Amino acid sequence: MTVVPLFVATVLAAALLWPRGGSPQTDGGADVPRYPGTVTRVVSEPCPPAPSVPEGTPRVGDGRCGTVDVRVDDGPTAGQQVRTPVPDGPGAPRVEVGDEVILVELADPTDPTTSNWNIAEHQRGTPMVWLAVIFAAAIVAFGRWRGLAALAGLAASFAILLTFVLPGISAGGSPLLVAVVGAALIMFVVLYLTHGVTAQTSVAVLGTLGSLVLTGVLATIATAATHLTGFGSEDATTLSMFQGDVDLHGLLLAGIIIGSLGVLDDVTVTQAATVTELANANPGLTRLQLYRAATRVGRAHIASTVNTIVLAYAGASLPLLLLLTADSRPIGQILTSEFLAQEIVRSAVATLGLIAAVPLTTGLAAVVTAAGRTAATASTDASAPRPQPDRSEALAALSSPRTAGSDEPARTRTAPPSEATDRWPESNRSTDTAW
């Protein structure tokens, strides 16, 4: 089998690239203590008059002043009431009585023996747990055992990302190589865990792996041609200050690979399943007919998925897009700037890899399906002779009148069950079994 050597090679590559000795530690500053608390009182006060500032200076905060009383719920001062200023500034949380918040205790620079309390953010643990429970329950309720397998695959994806991909890049490994091996490992685990060890899944795996390699090659060529450095976002710039040895250009390529994987396996699994259903619905279709019919489905899928990719990247970059719309430079300069060019290249390369996945997976599925069907037919012909129809039954069927309310031709009603079964699969037959 073709898949087995690829799986063994992926496992060996992962073992060689697996980070050893842990990720390098960065100096992220002192660890400020954080304590959960509950707001018991909010007192708003008029803000003092602000000093005059030059016209056109950006406004910082919304001028909220006052105090907030908070009961500390955990830690060495549990049960104590502390007073904090009303949170103010960009992104500051708005608090009301009863809100559960996170408190930080900061030492006074002028007097280390005293400390000041401030509200950092809201507690989000409980709502996020409930959201996760609803998410998992909906998937299991609709997908049943397959939904449960999908959740296991999701957990496996995060485990590989957190234990191999991210530590491997942080340890100084090649981001592109680590991302390709990690994506391949995720693909093998998730697809076989979710869809079972079948020939249909193997076709989807091969189509996904081929498309990933093509996406990586296209991403390398596109980023080199456009001279992208990887410093196209504030996050990348901040990362370079904490970990100067990280290859940001390679990290950009790794992001394209990981981001393309989720859409690619969707398309490849769909195309493999489409070919299977078409072959079961009409066993007389040839390889070319299967390929053409399934490709028509793939075109419709691609037409909607391309829009999905662009909108996903646009939604994740809305602050950047709003910032660029306020830019007074010509549109050509904006589109070719590092910030926007990076997103354009990312979307274009992912789309090209997605388009290539349709003919690649469909062709593989058509070949495998036709080969499996030919082998099954040859086995059946060798084991038993083809049954011949009874001439008297055929004449009786042609001469008998149609019954009232019947919308089936007589030849179909009188066809032997074995013949009907050979020509059409059962209506409740599952296509999840091996081909």
What tags apply to this protein structure?
single chain; 435 residues; alpha+beta; five-stranded antiparallel beta sheet; 13 helices; elongated; disordered C terminus; YibE_F; YibE/F family protein; membrane
Which secondary structure elements does this structure contain, and how are they paired or packed?
Layout (H helix, E strand, L loop, with lengths): L2 H15 L16 E12 L19 E8 L8 E5 L14 E8 L7 E8 L2 H46 L4 H21 L3 H27 L8 H9 L5 H34 L5 H30 L1 H8 L5 H5 L2 H46 L7 H9 L10 H4 L3 H7 L12
Antiparallel strand pairs: 1-2, 1-4, 2-3, 4-5
Helix pairs in contact: 1-3, 2-3, 3-4, 3-6, 4-6, 4-10, 6-7, 6-10, 7-10
Pfam families: YibE_F
Organism: Micromonospora noduli
Protein name: YibE/F family protein
Order of strands side by side in the largest beta sheet?
Answer: 3-2-1-4-5
The separation of the N and C termini measures 14 Å
Rg is 31 Å
The pLDDT mean sits at: 79
Shape: elongated
Helix and strand sequence: HEEEEEHHHHHHHHHHHH
* Strand residue percentage: 5-15%
Structural class: alpha+beta
Which range best describes the helical content: under 10%, 10-25%, 25-40%, 40-55%, 55-70% or over 70%?
A: 55-70%
Instruction: Please identify the oligomeric state.
Output: single chain
| Low-pLDDT windows of residues | 380-384, 403-435
In total, the number of strands is 5
Largest sheet: 5 strands, antiparallel
Query: How many individual helices?
Result: 13
Organism: Micromonospora noduli
Keywords: Membrane, Transmembrane, Transmembrane helix
Protein name: YibE/F family protein
Pfam family, one: YibE_F
